[in-house]
Amino acid sequence: MDFSFSEEQRSILLSVERFLDQHLPPEEVRRRDNNGDPPYHLLPLLGDMGVLGLPFPKQYGGLGGNWLTMTLIQEKLGQKAAMLCSLANRVVGFGGMSLITYGSEEQKQKLMPGIIKGNLLFALALSEPNAGSDAAALRTSARRTKNNWIINGQKTWISDADAADYMIVACRTGAPDSGAKGVSMFLIPRNAPGITMTALSKVGNNCLPSWDVVFDDTQLELTALMGEENKGFKHLMATLHYARSSMAANVTGQAQAVVDLVIAHATEREQFNQQLSKFQVIQHRIVDMQTAVDLSRLFSYRLGWLIGENLPCRRESAQAKLIATETLLDVTDKGMQILASAGYSTENDMQRYWRDARLYTFGEGSNEIQRNIIAKELGL
Known about the structure:
With 380 residues, the chain is an alpha+beta fold. The protein has helices spanning 7-23, 26-35, 43-49, 67-102, 105-117, 232-268, 280-308, 314-339, 341-344, 349-357, 367-377; strands at residues 122-125, 141-144, 148-159, 166-172, 183-189, 195-200, 210-221, 225-226, 270-271, 274-275. The protein has three domains: 7-117, Acyl-CoA dehydrogenase/oxidase, N-terminal domain (Butyryl-Coa Dehydrogenase, subunit A, domain 1, Orthogonal Bundle); 122-230, Butyryl-CoA Dehydrogenase, subunit A, domain 2, CATH 2.40.110; 233-377, Butyryl-CoA Dehydrogenase, subunit A, domain 3. The strands form three sheets. The chain has a four-stranded mixed beta sheet with strand order 1-4-5-8. A four-stranded antiparallel beta sheet has the order 2-3-7-6, with no helix packed on it. It has a two-stranded antiparallel ribbon with strand order 9-10. It is globular.
């Protein structure tokens, strides 16, 4: 088992770090967070670097790289500028990997070039007012006519929906009581008729705007169907493997940034005539934080390797998401306690990590659902 990075991986990560230092230094990240100003303009630049095309086949203009390298990049983005990592993950995971996994050849030929260049943004529209953790309970419907699909229903808490060029939308095409067996996936342009959106306010992740989306007799061409009709739940699970891998890498990077911030504070701050870092209670707490982050990193890397090798990873996907998001929640809580009022100040990055962290344990599949998945995989 080789844990070393290849020369190519080290070179890519160095290029990504330099890119972030130039375009999203800490002060720019703070400014954008304060203003709720996502850095959409940087996606084409990531495309020019080859980052967005890295995991895709060469036949579609990609670089034919492996998903583990993408995992390393996502961790670096998360550590330095999580807001850009989230956008990249929507392009690569929600958009590109969904198309590669179950999109039609026509859809791939049409959209993959724009994805790889960073010119297309995607949103995954799954959650509904009465269907969150229970995705099989969704009610947004797609009805086939002779020439069209007609979409009606409501989705909620859809990240980047208004800025997205396309939404990948889970709809019920079977009977109302068909559960997971009656779900299909659709590729819906943002500018399709009959779509209205309402912005939702929230406490964190200011550069990840969330929207309520209503479809009112939205007409689509028959080619808008992704994959097989009524087999969408299977397709959705594939998308969520990539999404959870991306999230695990992103929040692992964020958690490392929190530990680094705490260490810097503890070595600079003095109490009772000595550095805060010299108190054993502080040392032990920081040690526990770093150990948890290292464990999160191992789970994230393992999942990235499994996906890259096209191996089954249902349990490992749930585990990586579970461990990484709960680690971030834990280290931000401990970090706030160590920084105390300094961390509670809006001038300090600690408060941003703390309020942003709360989303991830229930976003893209709550951690209770992840535990259910793991239990099922264990035969319980």
